[in-house]
Amino acid sequence: MGFLISFLSGSLTDTVESREIQLIKAGELFPDTPLRTPANREEREYLGLAEGEFFKLSEIKADLVLVEILSVYCPSCQRQVSPYNELYTLIEKDPKTRGRIKMIGIAAGNSDIEVRHFRDEYQVRLPIVPDPRFAMHGAIGGSRTPFAIYVRQDPSGRKGLVAGTHLGLYKDYKRLFKELSTMMTMDLAVLKKESRHIEADTIRVEPVLKESELQDKVRGLFASFDGRITQFERVSLKGGEEVYTAVIRKGETPRRVFAKVTSRPPTCDVCHDIHFIYVFDSSGEVLRFEPIQLTKYGNEPWDENDLAKMRERVLGRYISKPYVFDPEVDAVSSATITSSIIIHVIFKGEILLEELREKGLN
């Protein structure tokens, strides 16, 4: 059931380790996570897709696919459009690469409307499909953006093999064109063998508070329920994450509550990491929302109005009930990326609740 938290003088347990995220790398199979099929007929024809609600990347008709993981609000993703438009033109004008190299953008945490606005505003040539619930974004490791993945398709229609990746802005489209032209002819077996010693790109999320400071914050949130705090524990979860829990006693009816400390990278390469705490009870109802580090455009910290807006959106809802982020309604002004990640993280808690119940914590 985890372990009782205690801090002794001089204890080393007060250190919170940074979290390292390893991204998909060369030599790995690209996930067949379903994506929504473009409604535009020309985009479907370019990708070689049949009509239907969803498609998988392995269904794209090409020898090589450049997959760009992006966010429409990411400044570097916006700057990436111009060189990619030039790259798209080079590929389509060259008879050796036209039809053999395809490009597609996957917009992490963004809706159809956001994608359409982005494509119109920046005159994007390549197809972009939304990934509103971060499904593909999570499947490739949960990268900051922009993150390019070069996928060598399998002629048999099975999952393609990652031939290479690039994290961050890539402006030299002529050089990239040459690299892609080489990759498109690489033998899959040779590619897999040569990729064995290539290391994956990694993202590090650094802690903001010490363990004792986190404990103080959580105790303060639990104390706000106006009762006696008992059975205060930190429980280890699958996947290496943890949750705090306690029983609040007031009168004859005890109430178990939980606090999840969340640290996530943003879908942006210039934004601060996202750190916050949310408190919920055994039914999954969200009871408290507390910032640790939340910033908006210019990496300015959230103010009280921003926090009030987010609390209005999350408190009283249930973590086990999926909630699709609506930027027009749910986003804190100038903090759409952070807002979408908060909503996404909190409202996918069905598995979390089940794990806690399996531990007898209900």
In short:
This protein has 362 residues and is an alpha+beta fold. Helix content is 30%, strand content 27%.
Task: Walk me through this protein's architecture.
- The protein is elongated and about 80 Å long.
- The N terminus is likely disordered.
- The N and C termini lie close together (12 Å).
- The protein folds into two domains: 165 residues, no CATH class; 183 residues, Glutaredoxin (3-Layer(aba) Sandwich), CATH 3.40.30.10.
- Strands 1-11-12-13-14-15 form a six-stranded antiparallel sheet, with helices on both faces. A five-stranded mixed sheet has the order 7-6-5-8-9. Strands 2-10 form a two-stranded antiparallel ribbon.
- The protein is 30% helix and 27% strand.
- By secondary structure, it is of the alpha+beta class.
- It contains eleven helices and 17 strands.
- The longest helix is centred in the first third of the chain and has 19 residues.
- A hairpin with a 4-residue loop joins strand 14 and strand 15.
- Helix 2 crosses helix 5.
